[in-house]
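Changelog-adjacent note: as of this version, every example in the card shows the full chain rather than a window. The one below runs 277 residues end to end.
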Amino acid sequence: MGIAIAVGAPAFPATAQPAPFVACNESALSTAITMANAAPSATLSLTPDCVYNLTMRLPDVTGNVTINANGDTITRDTGASAFRILTVSGHLTLNNATVSNGNAAGESPNFGGGIGVIGSGSLTVNRSSIVNNSAAFSGGIGGLSNTTITVDRTTITNNTVTQRGGGFIADGVGTITNSRVIGNSAGNQGGGIANAGGQLTVRNSNINENSAGDGGGIVNLSGTVNLIRSNVNSNTATDGVGAGGVLRTGGTVSLNNSRVRGNVPTNCAGTVPGCTG
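Full-length structure tokens:
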């Protein structure tokens, strides 16, 4: 079936052979994840430039798993029932992937259309795209309390929710670095990002051109959001009142060498030190 798993560290690395690629089909990917979960740690190398078209839900990632996607797309088939693409309760590192068309309406809770992190799980996403996913909360990537999410050099775009957090929610610990959260939308609050009790750091990133009823770019309900050398620009509050850029209803929002500009109808609502207009 072409399952590729590199488990742990070999006793003699110089003699180890490179693992084969996971074959370009959903059955091989599902089996590979199941086998990886059973190992102390495992690395899956996907077939380069493949589209893994999913007609059914993948197994949850419960182990310590790295997926090297090699430019692949992992997507829900347009005719399939609703499910999120990846659910993580263990530890997942995802490299160089596109995750698309997840729909968490078929999940409980309805969050994390692209990737949902639950329990005490942790997720690291590098050099990837999270695009065109949907949910009630956190259309692109979502983490419940007690989870950890790290996003680096990644684009989160065109994700949608009916409630909060069009692109991203990390209600535990979240870090976004060198990334773009652009063109996402929320029916209620936080078109780009919503934070509810988490500790979120956004560094060297752009939160631009998102929309929501209020808090088009970011909403902070509680917890902390720390923006470092980042931009929150050209976002929109579609209700026509409140904050196009950053809405703070609780907790704290800190701007460190960051800009909140050109948002409609206003840049900020609630107390956001250093934000004007």
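Structural remarks: The helical segments are 26-37.
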